Amino acid sequence: MKPTNKAKPERAGAPPDTGDMVTSTADGAEDAISLEALMAGDEKAFEQLVVQESPRLFRVIVRIVGDDDEAESILQETFLQAYQRMNTFRRESKLTTWLYAIGINLARASLRKSRRLSSLEDQEVERMQPQFNRGMFVETPAVWDPARVTEYSDRQQLVRRGIEELPEDYRTVVTLRDIEEYSTDEVAKMLDISSGAVRVRLHRARGALRKLLDPHMRRLPRQ
Amino acid sequence: MIPQGGIRYLNPKITPTVQTMKFLTALKTALGLAPGCEKVNEFLADYVEGTLDEKTMAQFEEHMDMCKCCSHYMDQYRQTIDMTKQLDDIVVPAELAEHTMFFLRNSEAFSKDEG
User: Fold this and answer.
1) Count of domains for chain B
2) DSSP labels for A185-216?
3) Do the strands A132-133 and A33-34 form a parallel or antiparallel pair, or are they unpaired?
4) How much is the pTM?
5) pLDDT per position as a tens digit, A4-29
């Protein structure tokens, strides 16, 4: 079914804003795709969107589902749904934010279906946060020694395993905010939660990840 | 009793030492006049993001300066973020976009447009 322009708001005479172009860069300087062309169902413009957004969206989906082949299927389904539902895009967010919301929802649905579980439960994430007594640290955190894990590949593996252990909603926030570096507001829109909830979830996720890295990073006692 | 306007030093030539400042900060924390470790920990994400207001930032940094626990924790927190940001372990298939376009062109949505 060809997307229609039924839902396209009347914008005659309105000054152009950033919503008229779909860009992958913060300054909007490159890879600009006409939103009007996308909304009109222009296949060339849509192909440009696929080329521009596929790598990043693929990485986000892989982090959620943990499987490359499954992620590629979900990516394809995401773009198909986006093309079919383009007329439902209300311009209340960036088009890419809307696209990622579709992809993340599909990835989450796939994860639920596969029953692939993270090794940590939400309550464990809570227990991994620093402990306080009367508002002060119960015990002094150890000093970390970056020289303990000097090999780039070892560091990558450590962090990757740590992220994989996090429950999905924490993993997704870390992925979007710290790895893909979307803004807090963009992440909030992608996940349909408040910016405050993103901050809290991100802080807890980092706290849990810190705890998982701690045994590998703490300075060893002198012999 | 602490006089209004803060403590005055009898001899202006004697400036408070770092130790004295730390003691005063610790005292303020104990009296509930400055945030403790738990409160400071809640500010950590906003501090790293640079979104703390000026007053909270000053309180945060004053606490960090005197609290070994919090400064160690912040160091770990920052290293965790740095290590996460450097993660680039996912290999994106070279023909990912081409595969997606092939899929779309074979779907009903695109093929109907062609006709």
Assistant:
1) 1
2) HHHHHHHTS-HHHHHHHHHHHHHHHHHHHHHH
3) unpaired
4) 0.82
5) 333 333 333 333 344 467 765 544 43
Beta bridge partners of A21: A34
Mention every residue, 6+ apart, whose C-beta is less than 8 A from residue A110.
Answer: A65, A70, A74
* Interface predicted TM-score of the whole assembly (ipTM), two decimals: 0.84
The C-alpha atoms of residue B109 and residue A82 are separated, in whole angstroms, by 11
CATH of domain A122-217: 1.10.10.10
CA distance A86 to chain B (A): 12
Q: Does residue B4 fall inside a structural domain?
A: no
Question: CA torsion angle for A37, A39, A40, A42 (degrees, to 10)?
Answer: 50
CA of A223: how far to CAs of A219, A220, B38, B62, in Å?
Answer: 12, 9, 34, 35
**Optimal mutation site among B28, B90, B95, interface A, most CBs of chain A within 10 A:** B90
The domain spans of chain A are 18-114, 122-217
Q: In this structure, which amino acid lies at residue A23?
A: T
- Three-class SS of residue A173? helix
